[in-house]
């Protein structure tokens, strides 16, 4: 139902007579009331931390706590609460890179309280065991560094703060290796992978936080270059933790390395820049066409955007999160797919109620497509970070609430009538379908099958909807989305999510991946010589690396080690 409303809102925004926010609001795109939820608070107030998704869980790593003191702890969100985990070292404003292996690389950060100094310290987080391992040291001590993993498993690292910069590689060993100097000393640079074995490095600030007069792009393999576009448009300064992988909108399996970043010109106009990896040139820089300017004022209050773009490749949407002096939060949503073909990207502005208890930190996209913001600072600064955690519901759209012009009133009234009729009809269909599903479950009572059902060790004990998903092997489709399940079962997506969560105790995404891995274990037992790429495709994974990472995250073992533990010769 919400998807229908979102489509209507987007269609209106793209129409000459569509919903347009009143000029007094200072924006010219649809305005939507944001649905939010306050989650359990962090155990430790923190800012300067990194927030990532690892092993299917949201994890906050390091940062500093009250008094501007670095904290050697992390927390993961599980079963509605945050679980504290000890780290080997304290990492405040550190480099954080999720790896294809499923582990997370953490390195550098402030050496002392008050944001003083830098460190060499490097460690790895393993989401399968929820443990940290001290793993070596950087080639040089760093703060505000950034990195990107190559096909080889090496991680390109660059960036620093009040200390010399350069390019180095982490190769999985106990130390990192220096590669080369950089053309410009940078803090919080972008390190973007542009080929299987190449990356570009650029930024807008030097290591003392001063704007660079000109922006030069360094390459890991190739000559430096200066894109003409960067003479008039430059990356926006990012105040929060910055992770370049959040900007990715490409497809690594197809060799497409595409990114979106937030950019501005000397007049303060803000828009999105597209960066496309190019083997010969390094990368091509262009502006993404938008359906309207990015809102910078709402209802007379200025909007600031302290963080950068976060992208959801599955739904081809990107988000920019901001706030104002009234403690209202904003999310600008971009449907970027049309813009990749030259048409303007439809936009929507989501607006919250004032939330003075919320801090601001680097937002992260959850596996379900929502946005989480954990901890962070307020106007009180680094000495009094927050513990509050908020979820911005972006997985499904809401009704536009902005004022309309006279030409659209009749159209809106007609749409409301249509929506009401559809809602009533849907309600009747849902009730009838629920009865049919329950009858189907009772009639089918699926018999256990070693080729379908999970092993007894699986944490999933499913009935009803979950049993139907498993017995039909709906999880074997690599492109499976919640909307597909809704169509297959003729039920609302939210009803399926709630049913699976109630029956299994885990989310739909986690349940689907659990079914896939359980089925993979059965196939491994039956055909131990099967290629991992074939196995991944058969159980529903888009590629071998995702299958390998998920298998290890769920079982704690690689497929090969799992076979060895099960005495398969």
Can you describe this structure in just a few lines?
The protein is α+β, with helices and mostly antiparallel strands and 569 residues long. The protein contains 10 helices and 32 strands. Among the domains are: 1-33 and 291-404, no CATH class; 413-444; 446-565, Homeodomain-like (Arc Repressor Mutant, subunit A).
Describe what you observe in this structure:
Helices cover 23% and strands 27% of the residues. It contains 10 helices and 32 strands. The strands form 9 sheets. Strands 1-29-28-27-26 form a 5-stranded mixed sheet. The chain has a 4-stranded antiparallel sheet with strand order 2-32-31-30, with no helix packed on it. It has a 4-stranded antiparallel sheet with strand order 3-4-7-8, with no helix packed on it. The protein is globular. The N and C termini lie far apart (52 Å). Residues 1-24, 397-422 and 432-463 have low confidence and may be disordered.
List the main descriptive attributes of the protein structure presented here.
4-stranded antiparallel sheet; Arc Repressor Mutant, subunit A; 569 residues; alpha+beta
């Amino acid at each position: 139902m919400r998807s229908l409303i979102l489509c209507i809102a987007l269609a209106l925004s793209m129409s000459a007579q569509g919903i347009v926010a009143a000029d007094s609001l200072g924006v010219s795109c649809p305005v939507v009331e944001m649905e939010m939820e306050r989650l359990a608070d962090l155990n430790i107030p923190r800012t300067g931390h990194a927030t990532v998704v690892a092993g299917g869980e949201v994890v906050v790593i390091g940062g500093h706590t009250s008094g501007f003191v670095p904290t050697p702890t992390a927390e993961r969100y599980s079963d509605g609460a945050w679980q504290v985990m000890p780290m080997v070292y304290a990492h405040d404003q550190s480099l954080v890179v999720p790896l294809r292996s499923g582990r997370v690389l953490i390195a550098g950060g402030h050496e002392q309280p008050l944001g003083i100094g830098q460190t060499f310290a490097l460690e790895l987080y393993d989401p399968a065991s929820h443990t940290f391992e001290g793993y070596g040291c950087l080639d040089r001590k760093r703060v505000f560094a950034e990195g990107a993993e190559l096909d080889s498993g090496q991680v390109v690292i660059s960036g620093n703060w009040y200390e010399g910069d350069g390019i180095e590689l982490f190769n999985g060993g106990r130390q990192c290796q220096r590669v080369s100097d950089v053309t410009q000393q940078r803090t919080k640079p972008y390190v973007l992978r542009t080929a299987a074995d190449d990356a570009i490095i650029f930024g807008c600030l030097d290591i003392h936080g001063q704007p660079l007069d000109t922006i030069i792009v360094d390459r890991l393999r190739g000559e430096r270059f200066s894109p003409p576009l960067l003479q008039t448009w430059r990356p926006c300064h990012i105040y929060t933790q910055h992770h370049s992988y959040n900007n990715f909108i490409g497809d690594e399996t197809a060799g497409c390395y595409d990114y979106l970043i937030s950019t501005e010109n000397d007049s303060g106009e803000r828009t999105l820049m597209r960066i496309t990896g190019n083997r010969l040139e390094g990368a091509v820089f262009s502006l993404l066409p938008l359906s309207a300017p990015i809102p910078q004022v709402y209802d007379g209050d200025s909007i600031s955007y302290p963080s950068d773009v976060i992208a959801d490749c599955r739904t081809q949407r990107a988000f920019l999160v901001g706030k104002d002096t009234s403690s209202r939060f904003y999310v600008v949503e971009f449907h970027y797919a049309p813009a990749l073909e030259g048409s303007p990207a439809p936009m929507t502005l989501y607006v919250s109620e004032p939330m003075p208890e919320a801090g601001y930190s680097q937002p992260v996209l959850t596996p379900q497509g929502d946005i989480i913001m954990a901890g962070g600072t307020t106007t009180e600064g680094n000495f009094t970070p927050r513990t509050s955690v908020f979820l911005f519901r972006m997985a499904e759209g809401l009704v536009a609430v902005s004022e309309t012009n006279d030409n659209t009133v009749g159209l809106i009234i007609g749409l409301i009538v249509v929506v009401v009729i559809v809602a009533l009809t849907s309600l009747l269909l849902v009730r009838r379908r629920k009865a049919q599903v329950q009858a189907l479950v009772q009639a089918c009572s699926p018999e256990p099958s070693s080729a379908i059902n999970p092993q007894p060790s699986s944490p999933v004990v499913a009935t009803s909807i979950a049993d139907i998903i498993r017995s039909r092997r709906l999880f074997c489709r690599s492109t499976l989305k919640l909307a597909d399940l809704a169509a297959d079962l003729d039920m609302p997506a939210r009803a399926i999510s709630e049913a699976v969560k109630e029956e299994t105790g885990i989310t739909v995404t986690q349940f689907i991946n659990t079914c896939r891995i359980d089925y993979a274990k059965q196939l491994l037992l039956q055909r131990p010589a099967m290629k991992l790429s074939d196995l991944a495709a058969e159980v529903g994974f888009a590629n071998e690396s995702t299958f390998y990472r998920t298998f290890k995250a769920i079982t704690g073992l690689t497929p090969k080690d799992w076979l060895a533990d099960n005495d398969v010769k």
